[in-house]
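FIELD: query
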Amino acid sequence: MGKNDWQRAEALDDLNADFVPQKRGGFFRVVAVLLLLGTAVLATAYYIPLYRAHSALTSEYRKLANEAATQRRQLTESIETLKRISAERDALATQARSQLKQGESARTQNEKLEQGLESALKKFTGKGRIEMRKQGGQVILTMAAPATIGLGTADVTEFGKKALCALARPAKTAGSKAVITGMGVVLQPKKEFSFALAATRAASIAKLLSDGCGFPPDKIEIRVAQQTDQPNLAAEIALSD
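FIELD: result
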């Protein structure tokens, strides 16, 4: 083999030595790029659905949390309303029981008052004198002229004075209030109603009850009215709690 042949062989070896490493390095770069792309594809395929699922779950959680907060608020309001209604119901029940008790007490007192008046006025009652009747929660006593009050006057007779003191005792014991209505007469010839006579009759009876019979003056009220179908009706006394 000649000198030139050895030189060509050495040159060829150098060329192969330069070429082989370059080819091997390019191959690894291609493989690395492919691996990187594959990893990216796998990551994308794996994490995107997870991200979407997470977003959906987060949105659903927020929706459920808002609904739960609304329901809690409504429940709290319902409980407060129920408590208020229960308190109002209890208050009404207590008030109803109190009113029922007061009503029963008032009926009992009215019955005692009526029985006391019947006993006290036994010798004073009768047509044309003192008449008694019940009206609602009141006991009504009517005084007729001329037995208790003079005809056309405000003068109370001795019989009327005794009757007033007789009714004052049970009425005072029962703590009753007395509304005294004086009845006027129709004056002739103008047929005018005498308010002055009605007022004087009521005032005379009130003075006798308080000063002569010991009935509390702060529980006396006077009124006036016109006689209608009872021309001899001189006054009316309504006793109530």
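FIELD: remark
The domain at 121-240 is CATH 3.30.1330.60 (60s Ribosomal Protein L30; Chain: A;).
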